[in-house]
Amino acid sequence: MAPAAFDAEAAKQPAADASDAGAPFVPGAKGSEAAKQPAADASDAGAAFVLESKGKWWHAGFHLTTAIVGPTVLTLPYALRGMGWGLGLAVLTVIGAVTFYEYSLMSRVLEHCEARGRRHIRFRELAADVLGSGWMFYFVVTVQTAINTGVSIGTILLAADCLEIMYTSLSPNGPLKLYHFIIIVAVALAFLSQLPSFHSLRHINFVSLLLSLGYTILVSAACIGAGLSKDAPVKDYSLSSSKSDQTVNAFLSISILASVYGNGILPEIQATLAPPAAGKMMKALVLCYSVIAFAFYLPSITGYWAFGSPVQSNVLKSLMPDSGRALAPTWLLGLTVLFVLLQLLAIGLVYSQVAYEIMEKSSVDATRGKFSRRNVLPRLLLRTLYLALCAFMAAMLPFFGDIVGVVGAVGFIPLDFVLPVLMYNIALAPPRRSALYIANTAIMVVFSGVGAIGAFASIRKLVLDAGRFKLFSNNVVD
Fold first, then answer.
1. Domains assigned to the chain
2. Is Lipid metabolism given among the entry's keywords (predicted)?
3. I want to staple 401 with a disulfide (CB 3.0 to 4.6 A). Which of 84, 116, 313, 326 is the partner?
4. DSSP one-letter string for 136-171
5. How far is CA 456 from CA 81, 257, 452, in A?
6. Dist CA 394 CA 288 (whole Å)
7. Helices of type H across 239-279
8. Is the distance from CB of 327 to CB of 222 less than 8 angstroms?
Protein backbone atom coordinates (compact mmCIF):
# COMPACT_ATOMS: atom_id res chain seq x y z
CA MET A 1 0.00 0.00 0.00
CA ALA A 2 1.23 3.55 -0.70
CA PRO A 3 1.77 6.06 2.12
CA ALA A 4 -0.43 9.07 2.62
CA ALA A 5 -0.02 11.88 0.11
CA PHE A 6 2.10 14.92 0.81
CA ASP A 7 0.60 17.68 2.85
CA ALA A 8 -0.58 20.69 0.91
CA GLU A 9 2.35 22.80 1.98
CA ALA A 10 4.89 20.29 0.63
CA ALA A 11 3.06 20.02 -2.67
CA LYS A 12 3.43 23.77 -3.25
CA GLN A 13 7.20 23.73 -2.89
CA PRO A 14 9.28 24.00 -6.07
CA ALA A 15 11.37 21.03 -7.09
CA ALA A 16 15.08 21.25 -6.41
CA ASP A 17 17.32 22.30 -9.26
CA ALA A 18 19.42 19.59 -10.89
CA SER A 19 22.55 21.40 -9.85
CA ASP A 20 21.75 20.59 -6.23
CA ALA A 21 22.49 16.89 -6.79
CA GLY A 22 26.01 17.25 -5.58
CA ALA A 23 25.39 19.63 -2.70
CA PRO A 24 27.72 18.95 0.21
CA PHE A 25 26.07 17.90 3.42
CA VAL A 26 27.04 18.60 7.00
CA PRO A 27 25.96 15.76 9.31
CA GLY A 28 23.34 17.11 11.67
CA ALA A 29 22.41 20.11 9.52
CA LYS A 30 18.65 20.31 9.26
CA GLY A 31 15.83 22.44 7.92
CA SER A 32 16.82 25.96 6.94
CA GLU A 33 20.41 25.33 7.94
CA ALA A 34 20.73 22.49 5.47
CA ALA A 35 18.99 24.53 2.79
CA LYS A 36 21.72 27.18 3.06
CA GLN A 37 24.36 24.74 1.90
CA PRO A 38 26.03 25.69 -1.40
CA ALA A 39 24.15 24.57 -4.51
CA ALA A 40 26.95 22.30 -5.75
CA ASP A 41 30.41 21.18 -4.82
CA ALA A 42 32.68 20.94 -7.83
CA SER A 43 35.02 18.58 -5.97
CA ASP A 44 32.30 15.98 -5.29
CA ALA A 45 33.12 13.41 -7.96
CA GLY A 46 30.91 10.86 -6.19
CA ALA A 47 27.88 12.94 -7.19
CA ALA A 48 29.18 14.14 -10.54
CA PHE A 49 30.30 10.76 -11.84
CA VAL A 50 29.08 7.75 -9.87
CA LEU A 51 25.61 9.08 -8.93
CA GLU A 52 24.91 11.24 -11.97
CA SER A 53 21.18 11.95 -12.29
CA LYS A 54 20.08 11.23 -15.86
CA GLY A 55 17.77 8.20 -15.67
CA LYS A 56 14.10 7.56 -16.43
CA TRP A 57 11.75 5.81 -14.01
CA TRP A 58 12.10 2.48 -15.80
CA HIS A 59 15.89 2.71 -15.47
CA ALA A 60 15.42 3.02 -11.71
CA GLY A 61 13.10 0.02 -11.93
CA PHE A 62 15.85 -2.00 -13.62
CA HIS A 63 18.37 -0.97 -10.93
CA LEU A 64 15.96 -1.77 -8.10
CA THR A 65 14.98 -5.13 -9.58
CA THR A 66 18.62 -6.13 -9.93
CA ALA A 67 19.27 -5.05 -6.33
CA ILE A 68 16.39 -7.18 -4.98
CA VAL A 69 15.58 -10.00 -7.42
CA GLY A 70 18.72 -12.10 -7.65
CA PRO A 71 19.89 -15.68 -7.17
CA THR A 72 19.06 -15.29 -3.49
CA VAL A 73 15.61 -16.51 -4.62
CA LEU A 74 17.32 -19.91 -4.70
CA THR A 75 17.46 -19.72 -0.88
CA LEU A 76 13.69 -19.21 -0.51
CA PRO A 77 12.78 -22.92 -0.22
CA TYR A 78 15.51 -23.14 2.45
CA ALA A 79 13.90 -20.19 4.26
CA LEU A 80 10.48 -21.86 4.17
CA ARG A 81 11.84 -25.02 5.79
CA GLY A 82 12.44 -23.09 9.02
CA MET A 83 8.73 -22.17 9.32
CA GLY A 84 6.70 -24.65 7.27
CA TRP A 85 4.08 -24.01 4.60
CA GLY A 86 1.55 -21.76 6.28
CA LEU A 87 3.79 -19.54 8.36
CA GLY A 88 6.52 -19.47 5.72
CA LEU A 89 4.29 -18.21 2.90
CA ALA A 90 2.55 -15.78 5.26
CA VAL A 91 5.87 -14.27 6.36
CA LEU A 92 7.08 -14.11 2.75
CA THR A 93 3.94 -12.11 1.88
CA VAL A 94 4.04 -9.86 4.93
CA ILE A 95 7.69 -8.95 4.46
CA GLY A 96 7.01 -8.21 0.80
CA ALA A 97 4.11 -5.89 1.67
CA VAL A 98 6.11 -4.19 4.42
CA THR A 99 9.15 -3.58 2.23
CA PHE A 100 7.02 -2.09 -0.57
CA TYR A 101 5.43 0.18 2.01
CA GLU A 102 8.80 1.09 3.55
CA TYR A 103 10.41 1.89 0.20
CA SER A 104 7.47 4.07 -0.79
CA LEU A 105 7.83 5.93 2.51
CA MET A 106 11.53 6.49 1.95
CA SER A 107 10.85 7.79 -1.54
CA ARG A 108 8.30 10.20 -0.05
CA VAL A 109 10.86 11.44 2.45
CA LEU A 110 13.37 12.04 -0.36
CA GLU A 111 10.74 13.94 -2.34
CA HIS A 112 9.75 15.90 0.78
CA CYS A 113 13.34 17.07 1.26
CA GLU A 114 13.77 17.81 -2.45
CA ALA A 115 10.62 19.96 -2.46
CA ARG A 116 12.23 22.08 0.25
CA GLY A 117 15.48 22.58 -1.63
CA ARG A 118 17.47 19.76 -0.03
CA ARG A 119 17.92 17.04 -2.64
CA HIS A 120 19.75 14.07 -1.13
CA ILE A 121 21.45 11.46 -3.27
CA ARG A 122 23.01 9.47 -0.43
CA PHE A 123 21.26 7.44 2.27
CA ARG A 124 23.69 8.61 4.94
CA GLU A 125 23.03 12.30 4.24
CA LEU A 126 19.26 11.81 4.14
CA ALA A 127 19.26 10.03 7.51
CA ALA A 128 21.48 12.62 9.15
CA ASP A 129 19.40 15.51 7.80
CA VAL A 130 16.01 14.12 8.78
CA LEU A 131 17.07 12.74 12.15
CA GLY A 132 19.32 15.72 12.92
CA SER A 133 22.12 13.56 14.27
CA GLY A 134 25.72 13.47 13.12
CA TRP A 135 26.25 9.95 14.45
CA MET A 136 23.43 8.68 12.20
CA PHE A 137 25.54 9.70 9.19
CA TYR A 138 28.34 7.39 10.33
CA PHE A 139 25.96 4.63 11.41
CA VAL A 140 24.36 4.45 7.95
CA VAL A 141 27.64 4.60 6.06
CA THR A 142 29.02 1.80 8.27
CA VAL A 143 25.97 -0.44 7.80
CA GLN A 144 25.83 0.30 4.07
CA THR A 145 29.50 -0.60 3.73
CA ALA A 146 28.86 -3.87 5.59
CA ILE A 147 25.91 -4.66 3.30
CA ASN A 148 27.79 -3.84 0.12
CA THR A 149 30.83 -5.83 1.17
CA GLY A 150 28.74 -8.77 2.38
CA VAL A 151 26.68 -8.89 -0.81
CA SER A 152 29.79 -8.51 -2.95
CA ILE A 153 31.44 -11.42 -1.12
CA GLY A 154 28.31 -13.56 -1.48
CA THR A 155 27.97 -12.61 -5.14
CA ILE A 156 31.54 -13.55 -5.98
CA LEU A 157 31.25 -16.78 -3.99
CA LEU A 158 28.01 -17.89 -5.65
CA ALA A 159 29.24 -16.93 -9.13
CA ALA A 160 32.40 -18.96 -8.55
CA ASP A 161 30.27 -21.84 -7.29
CA CYS A 162 28.27 -21.68 -10.55
CA LEU A 163 31.45 -21.82 -12.58
CA GLU A 164 32.70 -24.76 -10.53
CA ILE A 165 29.41 -26.61 -11.11
CA MET A 166 29.77 -26.13 -14.87
CA TYR A 167 33.44 -27.11 -14.79
CA THR A 168 33.02 -30.29 -12.73
CA SER A 169 30.15 -31.45 -14.94
CA LEU A 170 32.52 -31.29 -17.92
CA SER A 171 35.70 -32.35 -16.14
CA PRO A 172 34.91 -34.18 -12.88
CA ASN A 173 38.58 -34.73 -12.02
CA GLY A 174 39.90 -31.40 -13.27
CA PRO A 175 42.62 -29.56 -11.33
CA LEU A 176 40.79 -26.23 -10.82
CA LYS A 177 39.44 -25.44 -7.34
CA LEU A 178 36.82 -23.03 -6.00
CA TYR A 179 39.32 -20.24 -5.36
CA HIS A 180 40.44 -20.36 -8.99
CA PHE A 181 36.90 -19.55 -10.07
CA ILE A 182 36.68 -16.82 -7.44
CA ILE A 183 39.68 -15.18 -9.09
CA ILE A 184 38.06 -15.49 -12.52
CA VAL A 185 34.84 -13.84 -11.29
CA ALA A 186 36.74 -11.04 -9.55
CA VAL A 187 38.73 -10.28 -12.71
CA ALA A 188 35.51 -10.10 -14.76
CA LEU A 189 33.92 -7.77 -12.21
CA ALA A 190 37.04 -5.59 -12.09
CA PHE A 191 36.82 -5.16 -15.86
CA LEU A 192 33.08 -4.32 -15.83
CA SER A 193 33.45 -2.03 -12.81
CA GLN A 194 35.25 0.52 -14.96
CA LEU A 195 31.84 1.71 -16.19
CA PRO A 196 31.97 5.02 -14.34
CA SER A 197 28.40 5.62 -13.13
CA PHE A 198 25.37 3.87 -11.70
CA HIS A 199 23.32 5.21 -14.62
CA SER A 200 25.66 3.52 -17.10
CA LEU A 201 24.47 0.13 -15.78
CA ARG A 202 20.88 0.62 -17.00
CA HIS A 203 21.18 -1.67 -20.03
CA ILE A 204 23.05 -4.32 -18.05
CA ASN A 205 20.34 -4.22 -15.39
CA PHE A 206 17.56 -4.62 -17.97
CA VAL A 207 19.27 -7.79 -19.17
CA SER A 208 19.60 -8.77 -15.48
CA LEU A 209 15.82 -8.47 -15.06
CA LEU A 210 15.26 -10.79 -18.04
CA LEU A 211 17.81 -13.27 -16.70
CA SER A 212 16.07 -13.40 -13.31
CA LEU A 213 12.78 -14.26 -14.98
CA GLY A 214 14.56 -16.87 -17.11
CA TYR A 215 16.20 -18.84 -14.33
CA THR A 216 13.12 -18.52 -12.12
CA ILE A 217 11.11 -20.36 -14.77
CA LEU A 218 13.87 -22.92 -15.36
CA VAL A 219 14.44 -23.70 -11.66
CA SER A 220 10.72 -23.96 -10.96
CA ALA A 221 10.22 -26.30 -13.91
CA ALA A 222 13.17 -28.40 -12.72
CA CYS A 223 11.71 -28.63 -9.20
CA ILE A 224 8.32 -29.68 -10.50
CA GLY A 225 9.97 -32.32 -12.67
CA ALA A 226 12.08 -33.54 -9.75
CA GLY A 227 9.06 -33.75 -7.46
CA LEU A 228 7.10 -35.81 -9.98
CA SER A 229 9.92 -38.11 -11.09
CA LYS A 230 10.35 -41.73 -9.96
CA ASP A 231 13.58 -40.65 -8.24
CA ALA A 232 11.82 -37.93 -6.27
CA PRO A 233 13.13 -37.54 -2.71
CA VAL A 234 10.85 -38.33 0.20
CA LYS A 235 8.82 -35.20 0.96
CA ASP A 236 9.27 -34.39 4.63
CA TYR A 237 7.89 -31.03 5.75
CA SER A 238 8.25 -31.57 9.48
CA LEU A 239 9.94 -29.00 11.70
CA SER A 240 12.49 -29.71 14.41
CA SER A 241 11.13 -31.51 17.45
CA SER A 242 12.88 -28.98 19.73
CA LYS A 243 10.88 -25.81 20.42
CA SER A 244 14.07 -23.80 20.88
CA ASP A 245 15.45 -25.03 17.56
CA GLN A 246 12.13 -24.20 15.89
CA THR A 247 12.32 -20.65 17.22
CA VAL A 248 15.93 -20.14 16.17
CA ASN A 249 15.28 -21.62 12.72
CA ALA A 250 12.22 -19.42 12.25
CA PHE A 251 14.14 -16.24 13.01
CA LEU A 252 17.01 -17.36 10.81
CA SER A 253 14.47 -17.80 8.01
CA ILE A 254 13.06 -14.32 8.67
CA SER A 255 16.59 -12.90 8.42
CA ILE A 256 17.06 -14.62 5.07
CA LEU A 257 13.73 -13.28 3.81
CA ALA A 258 14.65 -9.77 4.98
CA SER A 259 17.91 -9.95 3.07
CA VAL A 260 16.14 -11.28 -0.04
CA TYR A 261 13.73 -8.33 -0.07
CA GLY A 262 16.29 -5.81 1.15
CA ASN A 263 18.57 -3.54 -0.82
CA GLY A 264 19.78 -0.73 1.48
CA ILE A 265 20.54 1.59 -1.45
CA LEU A 266 17.17 3.03 -2.48
CA PRO A 267 18.27 6.70 -2.07
CA GLU A 268 21.25 6.04 -4.32
CA ILE A 269 18.97 4.38 -6.88
CA GLN A 270 16.54 7.30 -6.72
CA ALA A 271 19.54 9.60 -7.19
CA THR A 272 20.00 8.18 -10.71
CA LEU A 273 16.66 9.74 -11.73
CA ALA A 274 16.74 13.03 -13.58
CA PRO A 275 15.25 15.61 -11.18
CA PRO A 276 12.59 16.31 -10.17
CA ALA A 277 12.04 12.71 -9.06
CA ALA A 278 8.52 13.19 -7.69
CA GLY A 279 6.37 10.15 -8.42
CA LYS A 280 8.97 8.38 -10.55
CA MET A 281 10.19 6.03 -7.85
CA MET A 282 6.68 4.69 -7.20
CA LYS A 283 6.50 3.59 -10.84
CA ALA A 284 9.90 1.94 -10.45
CA LEU A 285 8.68 0.14 -7.33
CA VAL A 286 5.58 -1.16 -9.11
CA LEU A 287 7.77 -2.50 -11.92
CA CYS A 288 10.13 -4.15 -9.45
CA TYR A 289 7.41 -5.76 -7.31
CA SER A 290 5.62 -7.07 -10.39
CA VAL A 291 8.78 -9.07 -11.08
CA ILE A 292 9.06 -10.01 -7.39
CA ALA A 293 5.54 -11.44 -7.30
CA PHE A 294 6.53 -13.90 -10.01
CA ALA A 295 10.16 -14.57 -9.12
CA PHE A 296 9.73 -15.13 -5.37
CA TYR A 297 6.63 -17.29 -5.05
CA LEU A 298 7.23 -19.69 -7.92
CA PRO A 299 10.62 -21.10 -6.78
CA SER A 300 9.61 -20.91 -3.10
CA ILE A 301 6.58 -23.12 -3.57
CA THR A 302 8.02 -25.52 -6.15
CA GLY A 303 11.38 -25.94 -4.40
CA TYR A 304 9.94 -26.57 -0.94
CA TRP A 305 7.26 -28.87 -2.38
CA ALA A 306 9.85 -30.94 -4.24
CA PHE A 307 12.42 -31.36 -1.46
CA GLY A 308 10.78 -30.42 1.85
CA SER A 309 12.88 -29.80 4.95
CA PRO A 310 16.08 -31.44 3.57
CA VAL A 311 16.30 -28.76 0.84
CA GLN A 312 19.74 -27.15 0.71
CA SER A 313 20.47 -23.43 1.03
CA ASN A 314 20.90 -23.30 -2.75
CA VAL A 315 18.08 -25.32 -4.31
CA LEU A 316 20.28 -26.04 -7.34
CA LYS A 317 22.39 -28.23 -5.04
CA SER A 318 19.27 -30.28 -4.26
CA LEU A 319 18.64 -30.70 -7.98
CA MET A 320 22.24 -31.88 -8.42
CA PRO A 321 22.91 -34.15 -5.41
CA ASP A 322 26.44 -35.31 -4.61
CA SER A 323 25.43 -38.94 -5.11
CA GLY A 324 23.18 -40.29 -7.83
CA ARG A 325 22.10 -38.68 -11.04
CA ALA A 326 20.79 -35.13 -11.40
CA LEU A 327 17.05 -34.66 -10.92
CA ALA A 328 16.69 -32.40 -13.98
CA PRO A 329 17.96 -32.47 -17.58
CA THR A 330 21.59 -31.41 -17.96
CA TRP A 331 20.76 -28.74 -20.56
CA LEU A 332 18.19 -27.14 -18.25
CA LEU A 333 20.54 -27.08 -15.28
CA GLY A 334 23.39 -25.76 -17.41
CA LEU A 335 21.26 -22.95 -18.83
CA THR A 336 20.02 -22.08 -15.34
CA VAL A 337 23.55 -21.89 -13.96
CA LEU A 338 24.62 -19.73 -16.92
CA PHE A 339 21.72 -17.28 -16.35
CA VAL A 340 22.53 -17.11 -12.63
CA LEU A 341 26.21 -16.53 -13.33
CA LEU A 342 25.54 -13.68 -15.75
CA GLN A 343 23.07 -11.97 -13.43
CA LEU A 344 25.47 -12.21 -10.51
CA LEU A 345 27.88 -9.98 -12.40
CA ALA A 346 25.17 -7.31 -12.67
CA ILE A 347 24.34 -7.61 -8.96
CA GLY A 348 28.00 -7.30 -8.04
CA LEU A 349 28.19 -4.08 -10.06
CA VAL A 350 25.04 -2.59 -8.48
CA TYR A 351 26.07 -3.25 -4.89
CA SER A 352 29.55 -1.88 -5.47
CA GLN A 353 28.28 1.57 -6.46
CA VAL A 354 28.07 2.98 -2.92
CA ALA A 355 31.61 1.81 -2.16
CA TYR A 356 32.84 3.36 -5.41
CA GLU A 357 31.03 6.62 -4.65
CA ILE A 358 32.61 6.80 -1.20
CA MET A 359 36.10 6.05 -2.54
CA GLU A 360 35.89 8.42 -5.48
CA LYS A 361 34.19 11.35 -3.78
CA SER A 362 37.62 12.74 -2.94
CA SER A 363 40.07 10.64 -4.97
CA VAL A 364 38.69 11.64 -8.39
CA ASP A 365 38.75 15.17 -9.82
CA ALA A 366 35.24 16.18 -10.89
CA THR A 367 36.59 19.10 -12.93
CA ARG A 368 38.29 16.65 -15.32
CA GLY A 369 36.59 14.27 -17.74
CA LYS A 370 35.35 10.86 -16.60
CA PHE A 371 37.86 9.14 -18.81
CA SER A 372 40.79 11.49 -18.33
CA ARG A 373 44.05 9.90 -17.22
CA ARG A 374 43.75 11.76 -13.90
CA ASN A 375 40.46 9.97 -13.15
CA VAL A 376 40.88 6.61 -14.87
CA LEU A 377 43.97 5.63 -12.87
CA PRO A 378 42.48 6.03 -9.34
CA ARG A 379 39.22 4.46 -10.53
CA LEU A 380 41.08 1.45 -11.91
CA LEU A 381 43.23 1.07 -8.81
CA LEU A 382 40.60 1.58 -6.09
CA ARG A 383 37.86 -0.49 -7.68
CA THR A 384 40.23 -3.34 -8.45
CA LEU A 385 41.59 -3.33 -4.89
CA TYR A 386 38.06 -3.35 -3.47
CA LEU A 387 37.06 -6.37 -5.56
CA ALA A 388 40.33 -8.13 -4.74
CA LEU A 389 39.52 -7.76 -1.02
CA CYS A 390 35.99 -9.14 -1.55
CA ALA A 391 37.37 -12.06 -3.55
CA PHE A 392 39.91 -12.85 -0.83
CA MET A 393 37.18 -12.90 1.82
CA ALA A 394 34.97 -15.09 -0.40
CA ALA A 395 37.77 -17.61 -0.80
CA MET A 396 38.43 -17.66 2.94
CA LEU A 397 34.81 -17.93 4.10
CA PRO A 398 32.67 -20.12 1.79
CA PHE A 399 29.45 -19.61 3.80
CA PHE A 400 26.88 -18.51 1.21
CA GLY A 401 23.69 -19.37 3.12
CA ASP A 402 25.06 -18.06 6.40
CA ILE A 403 26.29 -14.80 4.87
CA VAL A 404 22.81 -14.13 3.51
CA GLY A 405 21.27 -14.55 6.97
CA VAL A 406 23.80 -12.39 8.79
CA VAL A 407 23.62 -9.58 6.23
CA GLY A 408 19.83 -9.61 6.44
CA ALA A 409 19.73 -9.36 10.21
CA VAL A 410 22.44 -6.77 10.89
CA GLY A 411 22.27 -4.79 7.65
CA PHE A 412 19.01 -4.80 5.74
CA ILE A 413 16.65 -4.76 8.72
CA PRO A 414 17.94 -1.43 10.17
CA LEU A 415 18.13 0.31 6.78
CA ASP A 416 15.03 -1.12 5.09
CA PHE A 417 12.65 -1.83 7.98
CA VAL A 418 13.45 0.64 10.76
CA LEU A 419 14.85 3.90 9.35
CA PRO A 420 12.23 4.54 6.60
CA VAL A 421 9.28 4.59 9.00
CA LEU A 422 11.25 6.55 11.58
CA MET A 423 12.29 9.18 9.02
CA TYR A 424 8.74 9.43 7.65
CA ASN A 425 7.29 10.01 11.13
CA ILE A 426 9.83 12.77 11.76
CA ALA A 427 9.96 14.43 8.31
CA LEU A 428 6.26 14.44 7.40
CA ALA A 429 5.07 14.37 11.03
CA PRO A 430 1.70 12.58 10.80
CA PRO A 431 -0.44 13.09 13.94
CA ARG A 432 0.82 10.90 16.76
CA ARG A 433 -2.60 9.38 17.27
CA SER A 434 -3.16 8.66 13.58
CA ALA A 435 -3.29 5.09 12.29
CA LEU A 436 -0.33 5.85 10.01
CA TYR A 437 1.93 6.99 12.85
CA ILE A 438 0.95 4.07 15.08
CA ALA A 439 1.46 1.54 12.25
CA ASN A 440 4.88 2.98 11.43
CA THR A 441 5.93 2.84 15.07
CA ALA A 442 4.69 -0.75 15.40
CA ILE A 443 6.65 -1.80 12.30
CA MET A 444 9.78 -0.15 13.69
CA VAL A 445 9.48 -1.85 17.08
CA VAL A 446 8.60 -5.29 15.70
CA PHE A 447 11.41 -5.38 13.15
CA SER A 448 13.95 -4.01 15.62
CA GLY A 449 13.18 -7.05 17.77
CA VAL A 450 13.19 -9.37 14.78
CA GLY A 451 16.55 -7.97 13.72
CA ALA A 452 18.10 -8.53 17.14
CA ILE A 453 16.84 -12.11 17.41
CA GLY A 454 17.64 -12.82 13.77
CA ALA A 455 21.18 -11.56 14.27
CA PHE A 456 21.61 -13.97 17.17
CA ALA A 457 20.19 -16.89 15.15
CA SER A 458 22.32 -16.08 12.10
CA ILE A 459 25.54 -15.64 14.05
CA ARG A 460 24.78 -18.82 16.01
CA LYS A 461 24.54 -20.80 12.77
CA LEU A 462 27.71 -19.16 11.49
CA VAL A 463 29.54 -20.24 14.64
CA LEU A 464 28.16 -23.79 14.38
CA ASP A 465 29.27 -24.02 10.75
CA ALA A 466 32.73 -22.66 11.55
CA GLY A 467 33.97 -26.14 12.37
CA ARG A 468 32.98 -27.43 8.94
CA PHE A 469 35.26 -25.36 6.76
CA LYS A 470 38.91 -24.85 6.03
CA LEU A 471 40.54 -21.74 4.68
CA PHE A 472 40.16 -21.66 0.90
CA SER A 473 37.91 -24.73 1.00
CA ASN A 474 36.75 -26.15 -2.32
CA ASN A 475 33.16 -26.42 -1.09
CA VAL A 476 30.55 -23.81 -0.22
CA VAL A 477 29.14 -24.70 3.22
CA ASP A 478 25.32 -24.94 3.40
1. 50-240+263-393 (1.20.1730.10)
2. no
3. 313
4. HHHHHHHHHHHHHHHHHHHHHHHHHHHHHHHHHHH-
5. 19, 16, 6
6. 29
7. 243-261, 266-271
8. yes
